[in-house]
Design brief:
This protein is of the alpha+beta class and about 240 residues long. It has helices at about 45-65, 100-105, 135-140, 145-170, 210-215, 220-230, and strands at about 5-10, 15-20, 25-30, 30-35, 40, 70-75, 80, 85-95, 110-120, 130, 170-185, 185-190, 200. The two termini are about 25 Å apart. Bound molecules: thymidine-5'-phosphate (TMP). Thymidine-5'-phosphate binds near residues 129, 176 and 177.
Length: about 240
């Protein structure tokens, strides 16, 4: 598949067209952003680590029956994916309280959430990705109720698969964000799953191993991502 013109440059990935209208190439860059793009830094190896991390997780999810846009890892930084119509609603599951939930509801970080909570955010940088609900998503035409039902079912399934995977490797999957798209009338998992879009803590020490290390200036950001990958047995070379 031939890489063609740049279609879109996101905060961490660039999206290229290919000579096949059904496929795109994603290029994972080293750019690391936080606070809705207010702070951006280059972190060496991040693009490569996230590309390989994402490829491994997407393949595991696919084996578990979750259809994903992942087709083939093309190089250290590039992946071939299905071209989808993206649904502009992000799905967040929280197994433990952290981040914006703690700020919004005045909770203690680390409180176990039983059952896990499920939240939706409207993907809009200018508005700062506000939290929304299913009713608004339908009213404003972002997704149909049937699509939202399927997104929730798939997100719950992803949580079951990945919580178990991280637990077995001595880590806690605190929360994560997924994005879905429509490919040939099916709801398919898109974007990426990497430590950029989830929270992962060490089970014993509660050490943060995700992008909160960047947001909170804790240092050793990519070293932590690599530690997670090593513990999960993800090859990074
Ligand atoms: P939050 O606590 O900031 O709402 O984020 C919850 C989880 O979802 C956290 O793992 C980060 C992830 N997330 C993103 O990666 N991008 C987003 O735009 C949002 C809203 C959340």
């Amino acid at each position: 598949m031939q890489k063609q013109q740049l279609l879109y440059k996101g905060k961490a990935k660039s999206v290229y067209e290919t000579d096949n209208a059904d496929y795109l190439i994603l290029h994972f860059r080293d750019d690391t952003s936080a606070f809705n793009g207010e702070r951006v830094e280059q972190l060496a190896r991040k693009g490569q680590v996230n590309n390989k991390f994402n490829a491994y997780i997407m393949q595991k999810l696919s084996e578990a029956g979750v259809e994903t846009h992942f087709e083939e890892q093309l190089s250290h930084n590039e992946v071939l994916v299905k071209r989808m119509d993206m649904i502009p609603v992000e799905c967040v599951v929280r197994n433990y309280a952290a981040g914006s939930l703690v700020r919004r509801l005045g909770l203690e970080e680390g409180e176990k959430l039983t059952p896990p909570t499920y939240e939706l955010f409207y993907k809009d940088d200018a508005l700062g990705d506000p939290m929304v609900n299913e009713s608004q998503s339908v009213t404003f035409g972002w997704a149909t109720q049937a699509q939202l039902d399927e997104m929730r079912r798939l997100t719950t399934q992803v949580n079951d698969v990945l919580s178990e995977m991280f637990d077995s490797a001595g880590m806690i999957l605190v929360d994560f964000k997924l994005e879905f798209g429509v490919f040939k009338d099916r709801i398919v998992l898109g974007d990426e799953f990497s430590p950029d879009g989830c929270r992962i803590w060490d089970k014993e020490t509660k050490k943060k191993l995700d992008k909160d290390r960047f947001r909170q200036s804790l240092g050793d950001v990519i070293e932590a991502y690599e530690e997670v990958a090593n513990r999960l047995g993800i090859p990074l070379d």
